[in-house]
Amino acid sequence: MNSIVVNLSHKTYPIYIKRGLINEIGIEIAKIYTGKKVLIITDENVNKLYGKTVEISLKISGFNVDTIVLEPGEKSKSVDVLLNVYNDLLDFKVTRGDLIIALGGGVVGDLAGFAASTLLRGIPFVQIPTSLLAQVDSSIGGKVAVDLARGKNLIGSFYHPQAVFIDPNVLKTLSKTFLHDGLAEVIKYGAIKDIDLFLKLESLKDDDDVLANIDNIIYQCCNIKKDIVEIDEKDTGDRMMLNFGHTLGHSIEKYFNYEKYTHGEAVGIGMYSITRKSEELGLTEVGSAERIKKILIKYNLPYEVLGLDRDKILQAISLDKKNDKDTINIILLKKLGNAFIKNINSSLMNDYI
Ligand code: GLY
Predict the structure, then answer these.
(1) Ligand 1 midpoint to CA 225 (Å)
(2) Taking the CB of residue 175, how many other CB atoms lie within 10 A of it?
(3) How far is the CA of 137 from the centre of ligand 1 (A)?
(4) Residues of each domain in the chain carrying CATH 3.40.50.1970
(5) Residue of 214, 270, 211, 210 lying closest to 245 (CA atoms)
(6) Is the pLDDT of residue 298 over 60?
(7) Nearest alpha carbon, ligand 1 atom 2
(8) Are the CB atoms for 266 and 253 separated by under 8 Å?
(9) Which atom of ligand 1 sits closest to the CA of residue 239?
(10) For a substitution probing ligand 1, which of 15, 143, 144, 322 has the most ligand atoms within 8 Å of its CB?
């Protein structure tokens, strides 16, 4: 089993990566948790595929298990659903000595993590991410949140899990769209920090080849994220580099009401667009944008949207919560594998989209 340890000043926790891990999850949980009661939060799709496996494995290891099943999709990351989850957990007589398991993709992880961070002033939880995006990004680093009508992740906190258990085999049941969605974040890690990872993604033949190598790919991404989160847990410095492609990406998601593009697709468009602009401005090694475009095409990801209303996009960017007064931090590449943060006046954002 591959493992990585996230070392923070106030907490240390492991990330385990192993094919088939989900089948032995009870044994693994018993190594890190001495209580009896476990509360699984999952969604209908994941529950159908893996709910029973996880439940049985936990019961064999002697745990009492209750399960809360959410409707799949971003709409579940709402305050209304959160209130229902609090009530369900209280109906199950949850205490601070129990353990919550987030079993699912980013929506489940973010919502279950936020419920765990706030109910009874904090209940321990673990992440079992089942989408590629959650395995390489959202399950690590402690960002948990729910959305408001006016924007995503506006109510949230930093609350780290006790452990993250990643089973790459579960990706076999992921749709191609969501495999590629997660691959956009993998491409991002290569672009900002690891040219070898980028080269590897360029050299792999196809999705099957990606899946054959996915354990190592996930390990490399988790390692990059761990390093960044250890330096800058609260996202005031280096962690912002993880937002490469996200400034435009978030506004594209919002522009299309979160219906047309997945997060990864929108981020891919954002990565290509900002790199093309920064090349034109002489800030990025020439040829980088073309390689980003090629790799996005290779993994069936879009690289541009035609006919966008620029004013609306700029407005969405200026409303993004990451903006600090009249300046904005954007993430650019010096070259592939090497990113930097540039603080610009918001009025100059037009030059970068
Ligand atoms: N997903 C970006 C971060 O965790 O900071």
Answers:
(1) 8
(2) 10
(3) 7
(4) 2-172
(5) 270
(6) yes
(7) 242
(8) yes
(9) 5
(10) 143
Distance 177 CA to ligand 1 centre (A): 21
Distance 153 CA to ligand 1 centre (A): 11
Q: By percentage, how much of the chain surpasses pLDDT 90?
A: 88
pLDDT digit string (tens) for 53-106? Answer: 999 999 999 999 999 999 999 999 999 999 999 999 999 999 999 999 999 999
Considering the entire predicted model, what is its pTM? 0.95
Structure tokens given for 280: 């034109």
Is 2 in contact with 16 (CB distance < 8 Å)? yes
Is residue 324 pLDDT above 80, yes or no? no
Note the CATH architecture for domain 2-172. 3-Layer(aba) Sandwich (3.40)
The fold of the 176-352 domain, in CATH, is: Dehydroquinate synthase-like, alpha domain (1.20.1090)
Q: How far is the CA of 142 from the centre of ligand 1 (A)?
A: 9
pLDDT band at 308; cut points 50, 70, 90: confident
Q: Where in the chain is the domain with CATH 1.20.1090.10?
A: 176-352
Asked whether the beta carbons of 147 and 74 are under 8 A apart, the reply is yes
Model pLDDT, residue 320? 66
